[in-house]
Amino acid sequence: MSSKKSVIIIGYDPSVVDYSKWPGLTPEKLVAGLEADLSRMRELGYDAEVLYIDLGTTAESAITKKLTHTRFDCVLIGAGVRTSVEHFLNFEKVVNIVHKYAPSARICFNTNPFDSTAAFQRWV
Fold this sequence. Notes:
The protein has about 120 residues and is of the alpha/beta class. Helix content is about 45%, strand content about 20%. It has helices at about 25-45, 60-70, 80-85, 90-100, 115-124, and strands at about 5-10, 45-55, 75, 105-110. Strands 2-1-3-4 form a 4-stranded parallel sheet, sandwiched between helices. The radius of gyration is 14 Å and the shape is globular. The two termini are about 20 Å apart.
């Protein structure tokens, strides 16, 4: 059994993000930022991964499947999911799925794709 803390980022797939709300952000920068944070987390000793979700069609089943098959110490819900007014109900669904299927996990939030490590470190 691993003694590493396991963490996951749940965020919108880069192909469905409305980049007009994030000036200067592109799909490439989004992925690069998240990948850099995942690398930092792994260097710090975390088991870290990202789960990209869509805008609601399969998001619930994807999150449920991931959380029922893998135990996480902390779940980060990405800023894109959390701050999207037009997809607010998706955010509520994500929070409730995490609460149901990962009840012992801490929940945290980033403010952009470049500060996920700091968010995890606040809670794990």
